[in-house]
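fyi for ur records
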Amino acid sequence: MQKKEKIRQIESKEQRTLHFLFNPDVPVKETPFTRKYVKLLDGTLEEFENEEKEKFQGYIERMESEELEEGETNPVIYEDM
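which gave:
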C-alpha cells in the first residue's frame, strides 16, 4: 500500500514533490535587492543610488566615446554574499 501511495503521489496532478540540492561551497552572488535593502536599513539608500548612477553614467559615456582604460569594467559590482 505504501508503494502504491508513492506512485500515486508521483503521478498526481494536484501535488508535486520537489527535491532541492544545495552546495554550500559554491559562492552566491549578492542580488540588487540585497544591496539596496542593506543600504535602506543603514539610511543611506538615496545617497548610494545617486553615487552608483553617476559612476555608471560616467562609464557609459567613456564607453561610447571609446575612452575606457585597459581592463576597466562596469563599476557596479555584485560581490559574494
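The CA atoms of residues 28 and 80 lie 6 Å apart. thats all i got for now
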